[in-house]
Backbone:
């Protein structure tokens, strides 16, 4: 953190709050799907059948995130920091708690499927500008 920046909370607390909110959201989706009918009827799935499983997936994923947040160890005690990177007159960019989003972000080179999507998107991908790119 730079001088003058103040941490609002720890990384662990931010992860726990977000996982908890998504867990509650998924539970509400499941509850309401049960209310609508989440079974397989004589004419096919009832109105709440597919939303119930979407809610179940959200609850399972949120539970996994919650478990991971509690198992963070020393890393979770660090301050959760989100700061503005742009100088006056520049476009805004943000850096999250792990690392800055750059063209090199990710586990490695793009897959052939990602390259195909990028080629299909064409002008949209080419309209992105990374910080530090020369002016167009």
Residues:
């Amino acid at each position: 953190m730079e001088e003058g920046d103040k941490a609002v909370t720890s990384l662990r607390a931010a992860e726990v709050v977000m996982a908890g909110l998504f867990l509650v959201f998924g539970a509400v989706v499941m509850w309401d799907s049960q209310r609508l009918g989440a079974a397989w009827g004589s004419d096919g799935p009832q109105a709440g059948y597919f939303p119930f499983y979407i809610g179940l997936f959200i609850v399972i994923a949120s539970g996994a995130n919650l478990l991971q947040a509690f198992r963070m160890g020393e890393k979770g005690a660090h301050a959760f920091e989100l700061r503005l990177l742009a100088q006056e007159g520049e476009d805004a960019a943000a850096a999250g708690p792990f690392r800055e989003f750059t063209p090199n972000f990710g586990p490695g080179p793009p897959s052939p499927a990602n390259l195909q999507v990028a080629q299909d998107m064409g002008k949209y991908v080419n309209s992105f500008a990374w910080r530090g790119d020369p002016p167009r």
